[in-house]
Amino acid sequence: MTHGISRFGKTMCEAWGHLVDAVMAVEDTFACPDQYTYDWVMGQFPRLCFPVLTELITYSWDRENSVSNGVAGFTYLVPREEASERITDFAQQIEQILNDTLEEDYSDFEKAIALYDYFFRTYQYDWETYEKKTESMWTIQRPCAFSEQDRGFAARSRRRIPIC
Fold first, then answer.
1. What is the spatial distance between Cα 105 and Cα 110, in angstroms, rounded to a whole number?
2. DSSP label of 59
3. 120-125: Cβ within 8 A, 24+ apart
4. Which of 10, 34, 93, 111 could form a disulfide with 152, with the two C-beta atoms 3.0–4.6 Å apart?
5. What pTM does this model have?
6. C-alpha to C-alpha distance for 116 and 119, rounded to whole angstroms
7. What is the pLDDT of residues 20-65, one digit of tens each?
């Protein structure tokens, strides 16, 4: 996250980490210092850095007063039980990719190359979706799609999700 800190600052990156931790734990609040940080973290980061979240959460119902005493809230777009199942499926899919792709004795560089190779072989650019991005409610920064051999949350949702 060093690159993110230099680009967005420590406060934004910490709030983003708290949001991801909260969603992964199926909670509806996270540590966030102020409304400005909240608006950035909820508005920019999910779409760009963790697109799965855009189908699970949105701003708090009271968006203008979403942060109180350093705690921010958000709303689930699906029932919490469904969100929990999707999160579990997603985490299992990621864990499987990591277990199948990485060896314990790999250096950080070897891990990066192995993951790059996996994604290069497994995912493909989705130019059709990219070309239609102005027609869609989803803005795709790096167009690609899960291949048919991948299963899990993204494959079941039948949406082409960019990898950030």
1. 9
2. E
3. 122/146, 122/147, 122/149, 122/150, 123/147, 123/163
4. 93
5. 0.64
6. 5
7. 999 999 999 999 999 999 998 998 778 777 877 888 998 887 777 7
**CA distance linking residue 64 with residue 35, whole number of Å:** 8
- Whole-number Å distance between alpha carbons of 72 and 29: 5
**Looking at this protein, which amino acid is placed at residue 86?**
R
d(CA 162, CA 156): 15
The amino acid at 109: F
**Amino acid letter, residue 75:** T
Which of 95, 9, 77, 70 is closest to 44 using CA atoms?
9
- pLDDT score, position 110: 95
Structure tokens at 94: 């990621």
Give the Cβ contact number of residue 102 at 10 Å: 14
Instruction: Looking at 63-107, list the stretches that DSSP marks H as alpha helix, in order from N- to C-terminal side.
Output: 80-101
